[in-house]
Amino acid sequence: MNDSIARDLWTVLEPLHAVTYFSPECLEAHKAVGLKGFWMGYFGSRAAPLGAVPPGVVEAVFFGFHPDRVRRAVPDAWRFASPERILAVRGEAAARALRRIVPGIEETAAEAAPALRRVVEAADAAGRPLFAANRDLDIPDDPVEAFWQAATALREHRGDGHVAVLTSEGLDGLTANVLAAAVGAVTRDQMLLSRGWTEKQWDAAAAALAERGLVDGGAATEAGRTLKTRIEGRTDRLAAPPYRVLDDPKALYDRLVPAAGAVADAGEMPFPNPIGLPRVGRDG
What we know:
- The chain is mostly helical.
- It is built from 15 helices and two strands.
- It has a two-stranded antiparallel ribbon.
- A hairpin with a 2-residue loop joins strand 1 (about 215) and strand 2.
- The protein is globular and about 55 Å long.
- The two termini are about 20 Å apart.
């Protein structure tokens, strides 16, 4: 199995997971349990598997966000809604969104969830806190919710590994964002808006990368592009091993392409987006 299949599978699992950030069902569920505003809903729902952790933990594992953006949402989120209460609604709301958006999602979930669960069970949790927390949640009785939860655990497995690679390359959350924008994976304006950094902080980080020979005038140099390619390749290698329990990972990818495409076509998830996710089969 080529390690690149891990990236291919990310491009189909990520949009299925990401309904939790963009669909009206999920945004309303966060509001209904008492979370205030988009960012409290985002940090509260994504961090809920970790329990009522302090802001420093969320800052560390979410990586790319300005600490102030995290601390405006956590720990206040736990005063409005306990992690247990959030977890009771987040998967159910995601399943409702998928049922609305994706034709045949029941059949897709029935066919794909057992394979995804095998991969989750095969994955090593060492150094992967968000993955481990999601893996250890009870498997929902609802098949679409169970499917969404497995997809979520695997996207967090990849994300935890990606953070490890970035830090090993001497990048912090801000410089990682600047490099991603410099190679065209995301846009500067998107990342300033969504991650909470100021233009002054961004420019200082860009200057630091320029001193390393990685960017020049806002664009990545050849060295910067080489570094970004190495980061993505190492991330793939870290994400790939659990998929080796499958006889045919490519068949799982092919099965999930229509569902991921339906989420993209619904228009609720923007392209381009701060995640750096391409539209499956259409973008880079």
